[in-house]
Amino acid sequence: MINKTSELILSLSNSETKAIDRYLKSPLFNCNDQINQLFQWIIKSKSENINLQKAATFLSLTNLVTIPRLRYLLTDLNKNLEIFFALRKLMSDKAIYNTVLLEALSVKNCDKSFNAVYRSQTLNRQTANANSWLQKFTAEEIRYIYYSTRQKRSISLHYDKLFLSLEAFYTAKKLQLQCEILNSKTLITGNMHLLQGDEVYRLAQTDHLKDIPAVKIYYLISLMLSEPDQEKHFTEGLKFINKYKKLFPVEEEKDLYQYIKNYCVKKINEGHISYTRKLFEIYKSILDNKRLMNHDYFPQWEFKNLVTISLRLNESEWCRKFIDSYISYLSPPERLNAYNYNLAYLCWFEKKYNLSLKLLQKVEFTDVVYQLDSRAVILKIYYETSEEESLYYHLSAFKAFLRRNTAISESLRIQYSNLIRYTAKLARHGWNKRKRLEIKNELKQDIRIADKTWLEKQLDLLNSEKK
Hints:
Low-confidence stretches: 186-195
Oligomer: single chain
Helix content: over 70%
Radius of gyration: 29 Å
Order of helices and strands: HHHHHHHHHHHHHHHHHHHHHHHHH
Distance between the termini: 76 Å
C-alpha cells in the first residue's frame, strides 16, 4: 500500500501538492494530523520504494501506533488522494460535472433547478466529439426517467433526442475505434473481424447523422485509411478537420491531425513526392494553432521531421527561422540536443560540412534515432566531399552498429542497411553508366530505404556530370 500511495504522491506537480496539502487540512474532510504528517514525509522521501518500518521511524509514530495502525493511515491517505483526483477532474470538466449534478438533482422534487442544469448541459456546444454525445444521451436519459416516473403528461419526453444522442455516440465512437485499428498495422493483423464496417458506414450516411462533425470526420478518415488510393477522402477529411477542429478537445484534435500526417508520410514513402508539400503545409497550420502549441511541449521527433521536410522542399531560410523560433517549445531537457542535431542537419544541407560535423559531435545519443540519423548525416558528408577512405571506414562501422545494437527495430535496420548498401554502390560504381541504370531501377522498386530522395538526387547528379 505504501508504494502505491508513494507513486501517487510523487506524480503530483507542485501546484497539486499544495492543493492536496490544503485539502488534507480542511475541516470538511476530517483528516487527522497523522495522515497529513505521513503525506509530508512521503513527499520529502522522494522514493517509490518505502517500507513500513521506515515510515513509522521517520514519522516518530513507533511509540504511538503499531504497524497495523500505520497501514490504516496509508489506506485513509490513499483514499483521500483518489477523492482529490476525482473531484479535480469533476470540477475541471463542465459537461461531466453537469451530468453528475443532474443525476443528483433527479432524486429531488426541484423542477426549476433540475431544468436549469438540464438546459445548461444540452446547450453545451464546447465539444462535438463522441463522448459529448454520450453525455447528452445520459442527460436525456436522466430527464426521461425524472419525468416519466412523475407521470407529468404535459412534459414532452424527448424520445427523438434520446435516440439521436445514442446513435450519434455509437456511430462516432465505433468509427473512431475503427480508425485507430486501421491506423495500426499490428492491430489489423490480430483483429480483422473488427473491421467489418458496413453497418457503421450505413449509419454514418443517414440523413440525421451524416452532418454531425464527429461522425463526418471519422467516417472520412476511416475511408481515407481503408481506401488510400482515393485522394478525395484525404482532401475532404482535412477540409472538415480544419472546419470543426475547435469543437474537439485539444488531445483529440492532435489525434485527428496525426491521422492526416501519417497518411501523408505513407504516401511519401510510396513515392508520391507531392505529399511532401502537403505535409509541410499541415505542419505549418499546426504551428499557427496556438491552442495546440500551448497545450503541451512540441515533440522533439515532430521538430526533427519538420526540419527534414522543409529542407527536402528547399525551404532552408524557413527552416533556420523555425529552429531558432520554436526550439523553446520543446521540453527543456530535450532542447540542446535537438538544437545541435537539427542545426547540424541544416548546415549539411547548406554544404557547411565542417560546422555540421562539429555540431554532431555535441549531440548526445540519448535515443537510437539520434544515433542512426547522426551517422546518416556523416555518411552523406563523406560521400559528398569525396572522402573515400573516411566514407568506407564509416560505412563499415555503421553496418557493424546496425548489426550489434539490439535496440534498433527490424524495420529501421533494413532502411539504414539499404542506405549503406546503395551509398557504397554509388561510391564504387557511379562512373559506370550501366551500373547507374541498374541502381536507378533498384531504387524504384525498393521503398525500404532511409532518405531514398537523397540517393536519387546523388544518382541524378552523377548522370548530369557524366553527360
